[in-house]
Amino acid sequence: MWSVCKKDLRQFFSGLTGNVAIIVFLLLNGLMLFVFRDSNILDYGYASLENYFSLAPWVLLLLIPAITMRLFADEWRSGTIEILRTSPLSGAQIVGGKYLSALLVVLAALLPTLVYVVTIKTLEAGNASLDTGGIIGSYIGLALLCAAFTAVGTWCSSLTANAIVAFLASAFGCFILYSGFNSLSKLSQFSGGADFYLQMLGIDFHYQSVSKGVLDSRDVLYFASVVLFFLFLTQRRLLKK
Question: In what residue span(s) does the ABC-2 type transporter transmembrane domain sit (predicted)?
Fold first, then answer.
């Protein structure tokens, strides 16, 4: 599995995909947090990164599909998947290696954003202070969200040899999982109890829960279930193909 992961990591960073994805992610967040008027945290009046943690999932919803879209699509298109399948690696190891490589790239994009914490800490004045527990919880939530989105993108990439189609399918799938159930729960037909359970099916519900600074085992179990489910589907797709 690690051999597949290292091969894909070299491909990510030897080409434009990994570097451009990380640069675009940091640039978008920087513009929205320090330049654009409506989301500028410098004008917010409080030592808070709430705007960042609200905006980051939407940026990741496009960033992660861009990273995962070629994981299997290029293998199908070029025929190199046959080399992988004849190697002494199981389907689970192949899928796990590719998933891990994409996840490491995404997490590498999150690391530089720790500068935002230092920046706000430096700018805070008076009695204002950062909610350290909330920030740690939010970063854990972002990491779990990245793991789930990456699993969805890995599965979508295994469905087609066209990387663009894989990108669109992955972005749509991540959007439905993140926001679709929450939007569906607001329909009047589901009011009176069913709306709460619909919200629980979405990633946003559990992400917001972890971001409060309380790491609930139910939220961790939810994210682990999503990751394992889509990796299982990817492995089944690989074996079927």
Answer: 52-179
Instruction: Grade residue 33 by pLDDT with cuts at 50, 70 and 90.
Output: confident
Q: What are the extents of the domains in the chain?
A: 2-240
User: Is the alpha carbon torsion for 166, 82, 19, 104 positive or negative?
Assistant: positive
The amino acid that residue 120 corresponds to is I
- Pairwise CA distance, residues 113 & 238, whole Å: 35
Cα dihedral sign for 233, 83, 4, 89? positive
Please identify which residue in the block is written with the tokens 């192949």: 94
Please provide the DSSP assignment of 33-54 as one string.
Answer: HHTSGGG-GGGSSSS--HHHHH
Whole-number mean pLDDT of the chain? 81
Cα–Cα distance measured from residue 183 to residue 205, given in angstroms and rounded to the nearest whole number: 11
Instruction: Give the distance between the most distant pair of CA atoms in the chain.
Output: 64
From CA 162, how far away is CA 76, in angstroms rounded?
Answer: 9
SS3 161: coil
pTM of the predicted model, to two decimals? Answer: 0.87
List b or e across 108-130, with b for residues whose CB sees 16 or more CB atoms inside 10 angstroms: bbbeebeebbeebeeeeeeeeee
Cα–Cα distances in Å, from 12 out to 6, 8, 157, 175, 222?
10, 6, 15, 24, 29
Nearest to 103 by CA among 9, 211, 166, 205: 9
Q: Reduced to 3 states, what is the DSSP secondary structure of residue 186?
A: coil
- HSE-CB for 191 with a 13 A CA cutoff: 4
Q: What is the pLDDT confidence band of residue 228, given thresholds at 50, 70 and 90?
A: very high
Residue type, position 173, single letter: G
